[in-house]
From TrEMBL:
Gene that this sequence comes from: proS
Organism, as annotated: Jeotgalibacillus soli
Intracellular or extracellular location(s): Cytoplasm
This protein's name: Proline--tRNA ligase
Start and end residues of each Aminoacyl-transfer RNA synthetases class-II family profile domain: 38-465
GO biological-process terms attached to the record: prolyl-tRNA aminoacylation
């Protein structure tokens, strides 16, 4: 592709509202443009990268036995009413009415659509198992669209659904999917973990999230420092508690708030705004866990102490009172000085209320904004647990550490939730009707692109892994007024393209400084500079990742690039 003939609108300045690296660089390097909040266009380079990820996803899905299809994004409300999710999905579902006043949704996910499709087509166990998938835009009216492609309102997802007549068959398909997902994210070059996720009644081993490790991740994961064990906080806590029961005597406490019913009550009880920054510490005082919440960022007179165990609220307005009551010195928002007589069992490492996550970073003062969902289920609230950094890992190897993660994929066993609700049955060997057993498997394709950009960049721009780069080679003609340079760069462009390289040729009449800066920003793996020495048949090769450069005779280029 010749740069003069495509659209790569690079920017020198960091766009004002882009606050993470991937978002900034994808905008600056001309891969994407924002249309409106959470909605993006993929420009030619962005589209290429997306296609690279899609191709890997397709290969691995096909290898796992999936067959590709494409379902409508526009879905009639009746489908969602059948499953009950028209009512329960909440404001994230984009809804609309047609000219006849019939209600529709833009697909946030496709369980309903696929269940109704397969229900109508498949009636016998003999036609199962079946795994179908699609790569398609999804629509979710996210409360806080942010970080560019990482949390959009329209985004590209690969979603797969498997149908089975027995549990064993589902288990097999699930295992294949876990392997496929690991292959996909490995081929994308990502540093990721497959994390056990809490799936309530369904059971932990039936639900994995694939998390790219990243400081800007919105999820906190608990992982073992010396094994493959990794879980989201809820799941880790459940497992820890289970282990605690087995080996009594280990540190474990449970926060219980028996008489609270709604999230407003909870917020009221904790005396926090539902969007407030909260720091927490958990102490053992008189053999009882006590949660200390510090509201706001710096206001020391805002300290609230609550005896959570028996839901008795102890409010202390000033640090002095707090110190007196607890015998601890809560001097500031920073690390708290605690006398040895008091055991700190969780230094900002409490997980409570689903969305209020407090982990621990280097300074031990790690927190997350409180994001309470109004749709928050009371059930969860009755069952609060936590896991502590430094706890023994549930698998017996090493201790628990916390890390931030970006959820790029999610696989889980649905069982018969949708098939029962929507009456998707098959006849079994004995001619009896029974609900199909289902699994579902999602990958955020556009989010994965951003996660790769987040992990692969330096001060000068993007540094694409070879598998993902929009083009393999970037040829820069230094001076477009120099006939030899133009001729050699055209010649190499043709030659290397014939050698099946994907080549981007910068044939613009720009200053060379601009060309180099753009080239670094775009981040193709190899740059070939055609400059003054072109007259001697010599060009310069630069490896984007290492910065290594060398000169080479143009005839030897194809050998050198092997
Ligand atoms: P999150 O917890 O980040 O909101 P989710 O659990 O709601 O994601 P799933 O329903 O599991 O998402 O969807 C499957 C995949 O789709 C996710 O693992 C993620 O990679 C991707 N995804 C979900 N929401 C978005 C979004 N708003 N923008 C981009 N990708 C998304
Ligand atoms: Mg979500
Ligand atoms: Mg999630
Ligand atoms: Mg998920």
């Amino acid at each position: 592709m010749k740069q003069s003939q495509t659209l790569i609108p690079t920017l020198r300045e960091v766009p004002a509202d882009a606050d993470v690296k991937s978002h900034q660089l994808l905008l600056r390097a001309g891969f994407i443009r924002q249309n409106t909040s959470g909605i993006y266009s993929f420009l030619p380079l962005g589209r290429k990268v997306l296609q690279k990820v899609e191709a890997i996803v397709r290969e691995e899905m096909d290898a796992a036995g999936g067959v590709e299809m494409l379902m409508p994004a526009l879905q009639q409300a009746e489908l969602w009413q059948e499953s009950g999710r028209w009512a329960s999905y909440g404001p994230e579902l984009m809804r609309m009415t047609d000219r006849h006043n019939r209600e529709f949704a833009l697909g946030a996910t496709h369980e309903e659509m696929v269940t109704s499709l397969i229900r109508d087509e498949i009636k016998s166990y003999k036609r199962l198992p079946l795994t179908v998938y699609q790569i398609q835009s999804k629509f979710r009216d996210e409360k806080r669209p942010r970080f560019g492609l990482l949390r959009g309102r329209e985004f590209l997802m690969k979603d797969a659904y498997s149908f089975h007549s027995d549990q064993k068959s589902l288990d097999e398909a699930y295992d294949l999917m876990v392997t496929a997902y690991s292959n996909i994210f490995r081929r994308c070059g990502l540093n990721f973990r497959a994390v056990l996720a809490d799936s309530g009644a369904i059971g932990g081993k039936d639900n994995h999230e694939f998390m790219v490790l990243s400081e800007i991740g919105e999820d906190t994961i608990a992982y073992s420092d010396s094994s493959d064990y990794a879980a989201n906080l809820e799941m880790a806590a459940v497992t820890v508690e289970y282990e605690q029961r087995k080996h009594s005597g280990q540190k474990m406490a449970r926060i219980e708030t028996p008489d609270k019913k709604s999230i407003a009550d909870v917020a009221d009880f904790l005396q926090v705004d539902q969007q407030e920054t909260v720091k927490s510490m958990l102490f053992i005082v008189d053999e009882k866990p006590v949660l200390v919440l510090v509201r706001g960022d710096h206001e020391v007179n805002d300290i609230k102490v609550k005896n959570v165990m028996n839901a008795k609220v102890v409010e202390l307005a000033t640090p002095e009172e707090t110190v007196k009551w607890l015998g601890v010195n809560v001097g500031s928002i920073g690390p708290v000085q605690v006398p040895e007589s008091i055991e700190v069992i969780a230094d900002n490492a409490v997980k409570f209320l689903g969305d209020i996550v407090c982990g621990a970073n280097e300074e031990g003062t790690h927190y997350k904004h409180v994001q309470l969902d109004r749709d928050f289920s009371v059930k969860k609230f009755d069952d609060l647990r936590f896991v502590i950094e430094g706890d023994p890992s549930p698998d017996g190897n090493g201790t628990i550490q916390f890390a931030k993660g970006i959820e790029v994929g999610h696989v889980f066993k649905l069982g018969t939730v949708y098939s029962e609700a929507m009456n998707a049955t098959i006849l079994d060997e004995n001619g009896r009707a029974k609900p199909m057993i289902m699994g579902c498997y999602g990958i955020g394709v556009s989010r994965t692109v951003a996660a790769i950009a987040e992990q692969f960049n330096d001060d000068n721009g993007l540094v694409w892994p070879v598998n993902i780069a929009p083009y393999n080679l970037h040829i820069i003609a230094v001076n477009m007024k120099d006939e030899t340079q133009v001729q050699v760069s055209e010649e190499l462009y043709k030659l290397l393209t014939d050698y099946r390289y994907n080549v981007l040729l910068d044939d613009r009449t720009e200053r060379v400084g601009v060309k180099f800066a753009d080239s670094d920003l775009i981040g193709l793996p190899v740059r070939i500079t055609v400059g003054k020495k072109a007259s001697e048949g010599i060009v310069e090769v630069k490896i984007r990742k290492t910065g290594e450069t060398y000169e080479v005779q143009k005839e030897e280029l194809t050998d050198k690039l092997q």
